[in-house]
Specification:
single chain, alpha/beta, Rossmann fold, 2 domains, six-stranded mixed sheet, four-stranded parallel sheet, 40% helix
Length: 344
């Protein structure tokens, strides 16, 4: 643990995120599933702009943006990463330009393009640049950054998902917190489970766990419906982060768990909807249909398959994303629960 803290001290942060985030038990969900004790790491509570896991990365990555007057990043219409970049730009007094990829996700409802994260991006004052999705996550971001530089802007480009070496190193701080919080509760997690897509979060968790939680598995739940490409992205980011942190690189701790539904990125499926309902109705925990609920659905799959004993402990990392829930409201088909006044 001291080694991890010493390593993190080498990399200054801006203080954008409110840390540490809580580690809370989920006793009713644990009892309902009849498996291990489940805890939730509340990285949805990092603060600024509705919070989320990207703020933890931005805290470190943007320390290198000194002298910039403009942030550039990109993502799909309901990108949580874009929303957090836009919020940080507003907080720091920087201009924000976002590449909004069209075509990766079909609009699931009329509200998709004007509510949730899309609405917040506008409120934060971001300039939006719609661009067709080609599969290359960062090319359009770099192209936009170059165009703005040619106009005289001092640009700092934030990669898709804030997934680069420094972002991953910054995310090792989540492991430092979980290690301290777990020991205070006299437990050691058998696993930490989370949504995995662009790779930076999982790379940071894996690298941090090698130093502070060596007996804890890091399990990324594939939210893209393509576990092998996700694994390659995690491995590439892990290699770069290990080099930056001057730590040995080994990819044998990368574990990507495909979900039973296997649905594509941004597509709401029955298992994801069940995870949202269970977390909300049993624990008051709000999950989004793109990332956190799919990660919870993967966790539920593994618990039901008997992956852990009842006396073990696992941690679910809530990466945030709650605003995107409202963009999918028309698809949720939730049952009415209204009762007449005076009943019950």
């Amino acid at each position: 643990m001291s080694q991890l803290n010493a390593l993190l001290a080498r990399f200054p942060r801006l203080g954008l995120a409110q840390l540490p985030t809580p580690l809370e038990p989920l006793p009713r969900l644990s009892a309902h599933l009849g498996g291990p004790a489940i805890w939730v790491k509340r990285d949805d509570m990092t603060g600024l702009g509705f919070g989320g896991n990207k703020l933890r990365k931005l805290d470190y990555v943007l320390h290198e943006a000194g002298g910039a007057d403009t942030l550039v990043s990109g993502g799909v219409v309901q990108s949580n990463s874009q929303r957090q970049v836009a919020a940080v730009a507003a907080k720091l007094g920087l201009q924000c330009h976002l590449v909004v990829y069209r075509g990766r996700v079909a609009d699931p409802s009329p509200a998709y393009g004007r509510s949730g994260n899309a609405l917040l991006n506008q409120l934060f004052g971001a300039h939006l640049h719609e661009t067709p999705w080609t599969g290359d996550r960062n090319a359009a971001i770099e192209n936009l950054a170059d165009k703005l530089r040619a106009r005289g802007r001092r640009v700092f480009a934030v990669p898709y998902g804030v997934s680069n070496a420094l972002g991953a190193v910054g995310y090792m701080s989540a492991i430092a917190e979980i290690a301290v919080q777990s020991r205070a509760r006299a437990m050691e997690p058998a696993a930490i489970l989370h949504a995995s897509g662009s790779g930076g979060t999982q790379a940071g968790l894996v690298l941090g766990a090698t130093l502070a939680l060596p007996n804890t598995r890091i399990i990324g739940i594939d939210v893209d419906g393509e576990p092998e490409p996700v694994r390659r992205r995690v491995a590439a980011c892990l290699k770069d982060a290990a080099a930056l942190a001057e730590l040995p690189y080994a990819d044998d701790r990368i574990e990507i768990a495909p979900r039973s539904s296997g649905s594509r990125y941004g597509v709401l499926d029955i298992a994801t909807l069940e995870a949202m309902r269970l977390a909300a109705s049993l624990e008051g925990l709000v999950l989004d249909p793109v990332y956190s609920a799919k990660a919870m659905a993967g966790l539920i799959d593994l618990v039901r398959a008997g992956r852990w004993r009842a006396d073990e402990q696992i941690v679910f990392l809530h990466s945030g994303g709650t605003p995107a829930l409202f963009a999918y409201a028309d698809m949720l088909d939730l049952p009415a629960s209204m009762e007449s006044a005076g009943q019950g």
